[in-house]
Structure formats: structure tokens, C-alpha cells
Amino acid sequence: MSILLPTVLIGILGVAFGYMLAWFAQKFAIHTNPLIKKIEEILPGANCGACGYPGCSGLAEKIVNEDAPVNACPVGGVKVWTEIAKLTGKTTGKLETKKAMLVCQGGKGTVQELGTYFGIDDCRAAAVLGVSHIGCINGCLGLGTCEKICPFDAIHINPETSLPVIDWAECTGCGKCVEECPRKVLALVPGREQVQLACSSPASGKEVRRICSKGCIKCQLCVKACPVQAIHFQDGVIKIDQEKCTLCGLCKEKCPTRCILCLLTKDRKDAEKTLAPVSES
């Protein structure tokens, strides 16, 4: 009897507490908009944070609450953006994917080498320490930080040049490499046919000529050659107006250092379209 009574009481208390917990759970339950779950299922699930929000679930909630646009996920691309727009009934506006591009050609044999680097194998560490083993203070350090942080294995360092090679078929335009590059030699560009300047140095033509054989020497021959005035020399650097550019390629032909690249469309095996820099061979 002394054992039975406490057992019964504990059982009754357990049932009572169970009912109380169930009541509290129902009373104070946070009801999630089912649309959030549907959008999360459409998103790629990379949880890379490129959108600026805490994972795909966080972005889905922001889209539903109209705190983020339907194309906030750079990884998803046009297909995902369109599906989200249809689901939410929102207008998409102009949808354009972005790709990462290296705006530097100062690799081995091209840029002036000041010595051999023996420090931490990380561009950010070298930049913080103020270490530069190349003559161009704006050039790619070639230590592969972009390769390490790319969540989609779209960047690999070319051992012959020490420059990153970006696979546009795999690049999602998440922007992580651009954000982490201490020299800012990586940029997001439209994922379509275009002409781009592959040099980010603001140094004078004389200085560039001294330290790099493929840098922009500010000769402005491209400006004079452009038949539609799409190229301008502004604030000490060459700028290309992509809206005016007709892809004629005259600027590339006239550039004495070959630092203007044409990015052209090529067929992929899966019949989709991707972009890749034209070989300079």
C-alpha cells in the first residue's frame, strides 16, 4: 500500500502535467505561414548566406514578409526566382544572373616578382600583414583564398600562373569570393555576353608598364576604337558601358596588352548556355 499510493499519485501528476503542456503548446504556438515552407523547398538549400540572411529558411521568411525580393538568392538563378514569383504573385522585374570574374592577369611571368612568399597560405593573412611578393599593389596575391572559400568548387588556382580560374558553369554568383578577396580583383559581372577590362589597377600607365606586361597602361586606344562610345577613361581607369557595347571586339583588337577580354556564349553538354572567357592563345 505504501508503494502503490505514490505510484498512483505520480501517474496522476504525469497525466495532469501532460495535459498542461499540451494546452500551453496549443495556446502559445507560433503558426508559420505555409508559404514560407513552400518557398524554402524551392530554394536550393545551400544555406551559404550569400543572400545576407541566416540560411534558406530565413530568406523564405523575409520574402513572404516582403523584406526581400524574389531574386534575393543569387544561387537559385532565374528558374528559382521565376518559381518564387509565381508562387507569391510578385513581379520579378529584370532578372539577370551574376558570375564572378577575375579582373587581373598579373600571374607568374606577367607581373613583377619581388621575392618568394613563405607566410600563411591565405590572401587575407598576407594583406593584413602588409606582405606583397608581387610588384603590383592591386594585383592578385595568388594564395588561393577564393578557392578555399568557394562553396560550389567553382574556383581553382592555375599552378602555372598562380591565378584563380573560375568555372562559369559551376559559379552561382554567390559573391563569397568577391567579399573575401582583400585585393578586390574579383568582381560580379552579368552572366551574359560582354566585354570586360581584366585589370583593376588605378596606377599610371608608366607604373603599370614597369610592373605588369598584361595590365592596362591607360593608352586609351580602346576609347578611340569604340564606334559607339561605350568606353570612357574616367577617374584614371577605363570603364565600359555594357548597355552601349555592341560586342564588336574592336577594343580587344586594339589593346596592346590584351587586357580587354570578350566573354562569349558556349554550348554546354546539357544544352544549357554558359559563359567563359575566350582563350588569349
Q: Structural class of the helices, strands and pairings?
A: alpha+beta
Mean of pLDDT: 85
Number of helices: 10
Strand content: 15-25%
Largest sheet: 3 strands, antiparallel
The overall strand count is 9
Shape: elongated
Q: SSE order, as H and E?
A: HHHHEHHEEHEEHHEEHEE
Q: Report how far apart the termini are.
A: 95 Å
Radius of gyration: 27 Å
- Provide the low-confidence segments as ranges: 266-281
Looking across the biggest beta sheet, what order are the strands in?
A: 5-8-9
Percent in helix: 25-40%
Task: Note down, in words, how this protein is organized.
With 281 residues, this protein is of the alpha+beta class. It has 10 helices and 9 strands. The strands form 4 sheets. A 3-stranded antiparallel β-sheet has the order 5-8-9, with no helix packed on it. A two-stranded antiparallel sheet has the order 1-4. The termini are far apart.
Lay out the secondary structure:
Layout: H1 4-27, H2 34-42, H3 55-64, H4 77-88, E1 98-102, H5 123-129, H6 145-149, E2 155-158, E3 163-166, H7 176-180, E4 186-190, E5 194-197, H8 205-211, H9 221-225, E6 231-234, E7 237-240, H10 250-254, E8 260-267, E9 273-277
Antiparallel strand pairs: 1-4, 2-3, 5-8, 6-7, 8-9
Helix pairs in contact: 2-3, 2-4
Q: What is this structure, in a nutshell?
A:
This protein has helices at 4-27, 34-42, 55-64, 77-88, 123-129, 145-149, 176-180, 205-211, 221-225, 250-254; strands at 98-102, 155-158, 163-166, 186-190, 194-197, 231-234, 237-240, 260-267, 273-277. The chain has 281 residues and is an alpha+beta fold.
